[in-house]
Amino acid sequence: MTDFNYGSIKQGLDRDELLSRMQDNLSDFRYGHCLRVEKVSRALAAEYDGDVNRAGLAGLLHDYAKERDDQEFIDTIKKHDLDPDLLNYNNAIWHGIVGAEIIKDELGIYDEDVLNAIRRHTVGSTHMTQDDKCVFVADFIEPNRDFPGIDEARKYAEKSLDAAVEFELKHSVQHLVDKNRTIYPATFVSYNYWIAKGDL
Ligand SMILES: [Fe+2]
Ligand SMILES: [Fe+2]
Q1: Each residue of 16-55: pLDDT tens digit?
Q2: What local confidence, expressed as pLDDT, does residue 3 receive?
Q3: What residues does the ion ligand 1 have nearby, CB within 5 Å?
Q4: Of 71, 85, 165, 188, which is the most exposed, with the fewest CB atoms less than 10 Å away?
Q5: Which ligand gives the minimal distance to the CA of 37?
Q6: pLDDT tens for residues 147-177?
């Protein structure tokens, strides 16, 4: 049994129980992705002075809500009085920001550092903790990822966590523009903040 000490985040939290809840809610493809993100996120946290268990737990659960129906997200936005502007977006934005509320409701995880890393994994933030960055980057570079730019992304992650975040935001904004997709305002705010740091 893997002894990741998630009980230090919430007493009695049993990873095997979480894994079975994830399997109930996710395709095999996404479940495997979450396990890989957990592993990479833990490794990044160890390397870059993050909290290995918080970064790992957030990595594990970051896409927990990704396969829910749109209606469930809409209901959750209303139930938790989240920003009504969220209603103008879609799963790509909801599964992180709104997904954190679903994780609270269903899994009873209330650790705000873990929840923020999950919220921010889709859009970044101007206030990213080391753990937020670890999950954000791990999601982008886990071993099964394969897209133009992945080698560069992995290289940045070896050199500097901040540079990897910056590269990822730039890549994501570019991708959305290329696909004629709308961009959630917080993504632009994150992009502007990070690109101005000039780590690339
Ligand atoms: Fe995601
Ligand atoms: Fe993901």
Answers
A1: 999 999 999 999 999 999 999 999 999 999 999 999 999 9
A2: 66
A3: 63
A4: 71
A5: 2
A6: 999 999 999 999 999 999 999 999 999 999 9
Tell me which ligand sits closest to the C-alpha of residue 145: 2
Q: Please tell me the pTM assigned to this model.
A: 0.96
Q: Which two tokens stand for residue 111?
A: 């650790």
For ligand 2, the distance from its centroid to the CA atom of residue 138, given in whole angstroms, is 9
The ligand placed nearest to the CA atom of residue 66 is 1
pLDDT given for residue 112 in this prediction: 98
What spacing in Å lies between the alpha carbon of 96 and ligand 1's midpoint?
6
| Distance from residue 126's CA to the centre of ligand 2 (Å) | 20
Q: Ligand 2 centre and the CA of 75: distance in Å? A: 22
Whether the per-residue pLDDT at 101 is higher than 90: the answer is yes
CA of 135 to the centre of ligand 1 (A): 10
Domains of the chain: 15-146 (1.10.3210.10)
d(CA 42, CA 73): 28
The answer to whether residues 23 and 4 touch, using CB atoms and an 8 Å cutoff, is: no
